[in-house]
Amino acid sequence: MPNFYRALGDSTRRHILLMLKQGNKTQKEIVEAFDISQPAIKKHLNILLEEKIISESLNGKYRIYSINLNMLQIASQEMLQFIGELLDDRLLSLKNYVEKGEFSDEED
Questions:
Q1: What is the phi/psi pair of residue 81, to 5°?
Q2: Higher-pLDDT residue of 56, 96
Q3: Taking CA atoms, which of 10, 21, 26, 53 is between 20 and 30 Å from 75?
Q4: pLDDT digits (tens, 9 = 90+) for 24-36
Q5: What's the pLDDT tens digit per position in 43-90?
Q6: Sheet holding 25-26, edge to edge
Q7: How many Å apart are CA 97 and CA 89, to the nearest integer?
Q8: d(CA 1, CA 29)
Q9: DSSP-assigned letter for residue 64
Q10: CA-based nearest residue to 1, from 77, 96, 62
Q11: Closest Cα partner for 48 from 80, 100, 6?
């Protein structure tokens, strides 16, 4: 499963994804949208590729990047499930406190 937090934990990578939301882009188009070096952009692209959030194809000498919507959907569902479980634990703790006066602040 992709590490959604790693992929989206940086504003540059989030901006790259917003660009790709509009359609496939070449590496050159992505680099030109930022005020950082091509090697720095390539590192960000590699992280998104490693997490399978984007895919890469070759068209002649150009690398074309696109969003992997299926993997992005899986990652977002995983994140929502994780957040739901956290909230369920907090609600159960609140319920126990209200009903029995018991408070547990256990951290996993």
A1: -65, -45
A2: 56
A3: 26
A4: 999 999 999 999 9
A5: 999 999 999 999 999 999 999 999 998 888 887 788 888 888 888 877
A6: 25-26, 62-67, 54-59
A7: 12
A8: 28
A9: E
A10: 77
A11: 6
- Strands 62-67, 54-59: pairing is antiparallel
Identity (one letter) of the amino acid at 44? H
Query: Cα(44)–Cα(79) distance, rounded to whole angstroms?
Result: 21
Amino acid at position 18, single letter = L
How far, in whole angstroms, is CA 61 from its chain's centroid?
Answer: 28
Q: Which residue has the tokens 């018991």?
A: 102
Q: What CA–CA distance (Å, rounded) separates 105 from 89?
A: 10
Q: Can you tell me the distance from the alpha carbon of 81 to that of 78, in angstroms, rounded to the nearest whole number?
A: 5
DSSP alpha helices (H): ranges in 33-68?
Answer: 38-50
Lookup result for tokens 């590729």: 49
Token pair of 12, please? 């540059």
